[in-house]
Amino acid sequence: MSKHIHIILVLLCLASGVQAQETPTDDGCMPPLEKLSTNEQHEWNDFLNAICKDWKKQGPSGNNPALTFKDLNSERIVVGADYNLDDSAASHAAEQYDWMRVMVMYDATKRLGDIFNTVANLGYHVVIHATFQPGGTTQYYVYNNATLRHIMSLESPMSAAIYADAVARRKQVPFPFDDGVTCTGVNYCNHLWTIHLHSDEPLDAEYDPYILCMAYCAGIVEEREFMNYIGMDGTTARFVITAVGLTDTFSFDFSPAQLLGDEPAIDIDLVGRRLAQTTAASLPMQVGNGTWESCSYDQELKMLAFTTLTDELTILNNQGHEGQYKIMILNTLMMNPEQKEFLEGMAEVGLGMEFRMQSRTTRRTSTVTITPDELRVYLLERE
User: Cα angle at 250 between 246 and 256, to 5 degrees?
Assistant: First the structure.
């Protein structure tokens, strides 16, 4: 777990401590085909027969693979895909069964779109006989109509590779994903990559389970290279989390910018709101001459806002001297080890603090604002 994620968990733990003081299938992505009328069925079928007849006369299309027409009936088309690879490439192709199964069809549909569009619209499936060396062993790949249409919808070789990975992972589920975590499903559809994770052990009751799961997923986004490939495809990554003893199912989406590291993986606004809720549950609390009555999150300022009641003299003395007063507040908080760690966590996440003070006896107010940058500078100067 990265330091960034660890700090968030520590921060939320300290805030609560103040109180004490599917496995989706291929066809799950594609909608069902519209039913063709009898006339439409005959017209499309005649058109496909004519194309395949011409294809058969012309012989193989292209190379690596050379695509050839083999057979056609009322349910499927059979195509040959003959590669001319060296020993190492052929061996690699044979080992990467699911990757090659997707890539062979992806390449065929991009090169012979008129044929496969017709096959797809008719609701037929596809059989490909693939060889990776002259005279080599033939691989037989079968694609149902939904899988055919799914592969045809892929926009780039990277999309095809992500889809192939999801296909391979689905065959393995459930499988160990991390210590105490099992993957129960993976899917890729319409630029949404979804993984289902289940914690085999109860979550630490010391932490907010939602933030705990979000931080875990953000750690995966920050640390695993595969997330970058998903981001480069313009795809959103969705984590669906369940856990032993947890009645809720949590879902977290990470944008391509977050996957690529262009934006923080952690949603600072979500952390701020949760942290404010946790802190507010422990209030009111006496701090120096004042009482922290409530805590809320100011999304625009990225700050925890504390409503504070204090005496009139403190308000009067503070006016015009807010800079000195904010240092006094920080120095006071730093004297307590837990509050010091709380401040360090706030700075690491990028949150500031604002104390909105009001006199207990009059309407006189004063506001002391500590921005995220000011908090970071203050802590750096004390190192």
Answer: 155
